[in-house]
Amino acid sequence: MTAAVVSFIVVALVTIGLAIETARRPGRLPQAAFRIALLQGKQMVPRMLIGIVAASFLAEILPKDVIAAWAGAESGWQGILLATVLGALAPTGPMVLFPVAVALMEVGVGLPQIVAFLTSWGMLAVHRTLVWELPMMGFRFAAIRIAVSLPLVPACAFLSGWLADLIGRT
Amino acid sequence: MSEPRSQKRNFELGDSFVVALCLVAAGFCLYLRGWDGVERALRFALGLTIEIAPMMALSLVMAAFVQVLVPQELVSRWLGPRSGWSGLGLATIAGALVPGGPWTSFPLLYALGAAGADIGALVAFLSAWEVLSLSRLIVWEVPFMGGEFGFIRAVASLGLPIAAGFLARRLPVAFTLPPPPGGRTSP
């Protein structure tokens, strides 16, 4: 909650700064800006609402026991792949994700697997694509970005495991 | 991909995909979790909507100001199709510095695209926000996971945005931004 309030205040301050700068420029820029915001909102809001409902149903049917079973597994690349899938499906913001990652670390999940989980949540999160990427950027952008990100997530996990070995962290 | 090139059609394809996914997930939810599960999901959706609505409205206004302020020729020179590695690097730095959630990053992403940034720069920008966001590292990751973990993960992720942008430029798929607000879109 506090983090949300802080980021709201930051964005509000930036917006006020931009508004002042826009008003100082010649021409009818503020009116143009508000027209853009209004039209973009009208275009996005219905699509976002459907995306939010879809993500919520997905969250409800996600099998939570799979995560527990996975934690016991001595995983390697299979664990990394599973972590990648779970991270992509985690329908949540950082306020739920990081506590889950801490819990995973405490039950002995490996560092590369946790990195895969967090990185996949970053790059491949299904809910973010549904709620934000498709409505704003369209199908084609999402398809290209996801295609190039798929191999990069496990690559990052392996690289982090190698780095952890290098600096002597198990 | 073999669908027609028209931007509007891409948009509609994405829309119907989400609607279909929503219906299928709702059906599974009812089958697996019953009406209680459906109610929980809808409550969650309502809570999330209320939570992000004010931030969203504000960020749309912010991004619109960016759109009218940032000169187009500047963006297309620095982040355009011919911006090369420096464009990818610049987009990565910009993405890592963007604070907040998707309500901030996506309107900015659209604004950059509208101002002439190419697919590589856009993918690098979004990827950097996703895996290198400084504010997320400081506010969430280091407190929860510890400094050493945050350091290892961030270093391992340093190359990701540039690699993603580089690959995106090389994919033989043409990308065009969805119709700009105020274009030919019907209500």
Quick summary of this structure?
The complex is a heterodimer of chains A (170) and B (187). Helices cover 85% and strands 0% of the residues of chain A.
Descriptive report:
The complex is a heterodimer of chains A (170) and B (187). With 170 residues, chain A is mainly α. Chain A has helices at residues 2-24, 29-61, 64-72, 77-89, 94-106, 111-124, 126-149, 152-166. Chain A has one domain (45-166). The mean pLDDT of chain A is 82. Chain B is mainly alpha-helical. Chain B folds into 2 domains: 1-53; 70-176, no CATH class. Chain B is built from 8 helices and no strands. In chain B, helix 1 crosses helix 4 (102-114), helix 3 (84-97) crosses helix 8 (160-170) and helix 5 packs antiparallel against helix 8. Chains A and B meet through helix 1, helix 2, helix 5, helix 6 and helix 7 of A and helix 1, helix 4, helix 5, helix 6 and helix 7 of B.
Could you name the key traits of this structure?
heterodimer, A: 170 residues, mainly alpha, B: 187 residues, 2 domains, disordered N terminus, disordered C terminus
Task: Itemize the secondary structure elements and their pairings.
The complex is a heterodimer of chains A (170) and B (187).
Chain A: H1 2-24, H2 29-61, H3 64-72, H4 77-89, H5 94-106, H6 111-124, H7 126-149, H8 152-166
Chain B: H1 7-69, H2 72-79, H3 84-97, H4 102-114, H5 119-132, H6 134-145, H7 147-157, H8 160-170
Strand content of chain B: under 5%
Profile the largest sheet of chain A.
none
Q: How much helix is in the residues of chain B?
A: over 70%
Please give the most extensive interface between any two protein chains, plus how many residues each contributes. A-B, 85 and 92 residues
Which residue ranges of chain B are poorly predicted, with pLDDT under 50 across at least 5 consecutive positions? Answer: 1-10, 182-187
* H-E order of chain B: HHHHHHHH
Number of domains of chain B: 2
How much beta of chain A, percentage-wise?
under 5%
Shape of chain B: globular
Instruction: Assign the structural class of chain B, choosing from mainly alpha, mainly beta, alpha/beta, alpha+beta, or little secondary structure.
Output: mainly alpha
Rg on CA atoms of chain B, Å: 19 Å
